[in-house]
Write a structure and sequence with these properties.
heterodimer; A: 287 residues; alpha/beta; Elongation Factor Tu (Ef-tu), domain 3; Rossmann fold; 2 domains; seven-stranded mixed beta sheet; five-stranded antiparallel beta sheet; 17 strands; 30% strand; B: 483 residues; Fumarate Reductase Iron-sulfur Protein, Chain B, domain 2; FAD/NAD(P)-binding domain; 3 domains; five-stranded parallel beta sheet; binds flavin-adenine dinucleotide; binds iron/sulfur cluster; binds FE2/S2 (inorganic) cluster
């Protein structure tokens, strides 16, 4: 059992939790992820390692309440425990001094981009960060991001905070500016955002790293459910990634695979809400 | 019963296994084979001739003391039967259910030459089940030695090795990457063939009697590397299996609705998708499923599909979908256990022999629409002696399906070999290890089971775990140096 040490509400649908898991914390690095299972009935869901504390033996996760599992996770509190917590999985981000880099976080993607921006800054890069979300309430960690960036641009789709635009707009301006030589771009967020970031950078030939969030089961290369189609064939996101050269990804294939279980996901939420209403606080009639 | 003469024993007919009715079982997940009663088991045991040179034992990869346990069983001494069994086999309730007996112990039984072999597997299951419900607990741990052994992977190879090493008084830690121990027994082989309660029973028994520390959620190569384990432990055994799926190199493989058998079986068995939404993990099949391949894995996948489709039909009141096997050779070459093929047929699975997929076709939403196949015929025998299937020109046809499950064989998962300098591997990715001792080319590292042989059988993995354990015990006692 893995204990929840602390919890923070970052926005009405985004929550942070620090989990006690020394076997993961001892080796965790930016860019890697964990597989979490809430209870005996739970599915295995992948979540990025947003931060870690080796001495305390803890891992920080940040998640957006999208469906049944993340909604249920959001209801837990410090002192509660999770039944499974496996990791660190996937390859860490390759950190070097590249020169000037752009780090982009969309929505809950702000969480995983933060440790990457921090590590790139520590390695001596000039870091320009762009974070964005649909609306003001969904933006979090603005000050933390500012602290590790040489420049920070904040966007919202509805203009309720920062600039009213998609994150790709300021990106294009930066790429167009003759005074800038951008060595590399990182983009983490919804698949559709990452797709458009790679479309934006392609004409400039700027290497663009994306972190793919396919549906996963084991997270160790055993099922192939996470496979993604790249220009040169299929790869497994959990062991070959999760970071890939965004210009090689077949985005339409990725997007269609992500929505394959839509009906079942909806059914799971309905079932969850139904049993919650019947049983009050207990889930599925069992503690 | 009075002592019988051999001729009288040979007159007794082999006892059938009572099975759940096919019409019923096709829409539930309960065990198909119901097991012998005590009377039937003892009568079946009477058939054994107690050969002086028992051929059956030679057919068993671990050399189970077959005549001995059968004799104890027919005398009604169950405690003794369990004792004989456990000399060579820690998991009789498992092996009795899943061993390919027809090519192993029973395939060699002298009675099989003229008539029908003694039902050794069924008797073994009976003894194993008795032990699980009565727990006579013959597993005793020797005095603590202070030596520490790490076992990686909790499938049959790892479990067997862990048990035999722990018995000698060494401290054993068993690392497993998934959330539950058991390997293929838990995530691959379905409930209706091997109830998970049997596997859990065998595992918790070993853990309780021998204080084996089972650490799940520990991916070796990630949480800890092999070299780190060698720092903390005196010996390391790798029993990480062959869990990496392969996909056919044909167009359309990344369409929605194409799955590896591993993904499908993991969703259904480990994650219990057949109880969705009570369990969170779903599986989506549509109306018509094609499973490519005809080994044990394919049979399990197609029989799970058949059940899911029937359950869905029951729930919605519609007509049940179809579950197909697509196999490029003929029925004679099918590698699965005979009983499994027979059960699949009874349950309504449709077999398409001499049929080879060449492309998967999708609709505008990138969902599978059809499997394009060609018909095959058997040509000249190849190197393995099997007649090689060759394509019949112009025989392409489309099979309309919603789901394609690839059951094509698997390779060892390379994660464990990160930071394992000096551990030699073959070009197939399997670890190089001595057959008798399990020693790898890396000091203090042993390996066995599917990670060495590639996909094989439960009992052969157990045998390898046992031989390695014996060598680890000799090594730790100082009776055998690492050379
Ligand atoms: C390597 C990796 C790292 C991840 N890191 C994080 C993280 O740090 N924080 C976080 O909030 N999420 C992260 N995700 C996504 C997260 O795993 C999913 O949001 C989660 O599994 C949804 O579970 P659910 O039951 O709540 O929702 P579901 O019922 O499964 O889904 C609800 C809705 O979300 C969409 N959805 C489902 N799966 C995903 C997915 N993988 N990505 C995007 N949308 C999806 C569905 O289309 C559906 O509309 C990561 C995914 C991967 C593969
Ligand atoms: C669907 C299916 C049906 C089968 N049916 C039969 C049958 O009827 N009869 C029969 O005899 N055989 C059958 N087999 C074959 C048999 O199950 C295998 O040969 C046997 O399980 C191999 O045992 P093992 O201990 O070597 O590996 P496995 O059972 O594969 O166990 C390996 C374990 O190691 C874990 N692991 C892997 N990598 C790591 C890591 N890096 N760190 C920690 N843990 C790790 C895995 O999660 C797994 O739990 C079947 C196989 C399948 C897939
Ligand atoms: S372990 Fe398998 S092969 Fe050996 S006797 Fe038992 S059933 Fe037969
Ligand atoms: S070969 Fe058959 S008859 Fe002879 S001892 Fe073995 S099981 Fe009994
Ligand atoms: S999640 Fe199973 S192979 Fe990647």
């Amino acid at each position: 059992m893995y204990k929840i040490l602390s919890k923070e509400v970052l926005s009405n649908v985004v929550k942070l939790m620090e989990i006690e898991a020394p076997h993961v914390a001892r080796k965790a690095a930016a860019g890697q992820f964990v597989i979490v299972r809430i209870d005996e009935f739970g599915e295995r869901i992948p979540l990025t390692i947003a931060d870690y504390d080796r001495e305390k033996g803890s891992i920080t996760i940040i998640f957006q309440e999208l469906g049944k599992s993340t909604m249920q996770l959001g209801k837990l509190n410090p002192g509660d425990s999770l039944v499974s917590f496996a990791g660190p999985l996937g390859h860490p981000t390759e950190i070097e001094n590249f020169g000037t880099v752009v780090c982009m976080g969309g929505g809950v993607g702000i969480a995983p981009i933060y440790p990457i921006a921090r590590a790139l800054k520590e390695a001596g890069n000039k870091v320009i960060s762009i974070i964005g979300a649909r609306t003001k309430e969904l933006i979090f960690w603005e000050e933390k991001m500012r602290a590790v960036s040489d420049e920070l641009i904040v966007c919202t789709d509805d203009g309720s905070h920062g600039r009213k635009s998609l994150v790709t707009e300021p990106l294009k301006e930066i790429l167009d500016n003759k005074n800038n030589t951008i060595a590399k771009v990182w983009a983490i967020g919804p698949a559709i955002m990452m797709k458009f970031v790679t479309i934006a950078t392609r004409p400039y030939n700027v290497p663009t790293i994306v972190s793919l969030n396919t549906i996963m089961i084991d997270g160790t290369g055993m099922c192939g459910g996470c496979r993604v189609l790249l220009e040169d064939g299929a790869q497994f996101v959990c062991v070959d990634g999760p970071e890939f050269n965004g210009h090689k990804v077949d985005w339409d294939n990725l997007l269609s695979r992500l929505s394959f279980y839509k009906n079942e996901e909806k059914q799971a939420v309905e079932h969850y809400e139904h049993t919650c209403r019947i049983d009050g606080a207990t889930v599925k009639g069992r503690e | 019963m009075a002592e019988l003469k051999p001729a009288e024993r040979m007159k007794i007919k082999r006892h059938d296994m009572p099975n759940q009715d096919p019409d019923q079982r096709r829409s539930n997940y309960e065990e198909v084979a119901l097991g012998y009663s005590l009377e039937t088991a003892r009568e079946e045991a009477e058939r054994c001739l107690q050969c002086k040179d028992p051929k059956c034992v030679q057919g068993c990869p671990v050399g189970v003391l077959i005549p001995q346990f059968i004799k104890a069983l027919r005398e009604g001494d169950m405690v003794q039967a369990v004792k004989w069994m456990k000399v060579k086999n820690n998991l009789p309730a498992v092996c009795g259910r899943v061993c390919p007996q027809e090519v192993q112990c029973e395939g060699n039984c002298i009675l099989g030459k003229k008539g029908e072999a003694v039902a050794i597997g069924r008797l073994e299951r009976f003894v194993g089940d008795y032990e699980l419900s009565h727990r006579t607990c013959p597993m005793v741990k020797a005095k603590k030695t202070g030596n520490k052994v790490a076992v990686v992977g909790s499938g049959p190879a790892g479990l067997t090795c862990a048990v035999d090493v722990a018995r000698e008084g060494h401290d054993v830690t068993l690392f497993e990457s998934l959330h539950g121990p058991g390997g293929v027994l838990i995530y691959g082989i379905p409930e209706f063939r091997l109830p998970k309660s049997v596997v859990h029973g065998e595992i918790s028994y070993a853990a309780e009697c021998l204080c084996i520390d089972i650490k799940t959620d520990h991916v070796i190569g990630r949480s800890f590397t092999l070299d780190e384990l060698l720092h903390d432990f005196d010996a390391v055994f790798l029993g990480t299996g062959a869990g990496l799926p392969s996909f056919m190199r044909i167009p359309g493989i990344n369409l929605n609705g194409v799955m590896s058998a591993n993904e499908f079986l993991t969703r259904v068995n480990l994650m219990k998708a057949y109880q969705f939404p009570d369990y969170d993990t779903p599986v989506r099949l549509g109306k018509k499923v094609a499973v490519v391949g005809a080994g044990n894995v394919a049979m399990d996948a197609v029989r799970c599909s058949q059940r899911l489709l029937s359950l869905e039909a029951k729930r919605t009141g519609g007509t049940p979908g179809e579950a197909h096997i697509v196999y490029r050779r003929s029925k004679d070459e099918v590698p699965a256990r005979a009983e499994e093929v027979h059960h699949a047929e009874e349950e309504g699975v449709i077999f398409n022999f001499l049929t080879n997929p060449i492309e998967i076709l999708g609709d505008d939403k990138r969902n599978v629409r059809a499997l394009r196949c060609v018909r095959m015929e058997l040509g000249e025998p190849d190197a393995s002696g099997r007649r090689k299937p060759v394509e019949i020109k112009g025989s392409e046809f489309d099979m309309e399906v919603d789901t394609v499950i690839m059951a094509l064989g698997t390779n060892p998962n390379p994660i464990v070999f990160v930071d394992a300098e000096g551990l030699e591997r073959t070009k197939y990715g399997t670890a190089v290890a001595d057959h008798e001792t399990g020693r790898t080319k890396k000091e203090r590292v042993w390996a066995g089971g599917d990670v060495v042989t590639g996909a094989a059988t439960v009992i052969s993995a157990m045998g390898a775990g046992k031989r390695a354990a014996a060598d680890i015990n000799r090594f730790l006692k100082g009776e055998a140096d690492w050379q």
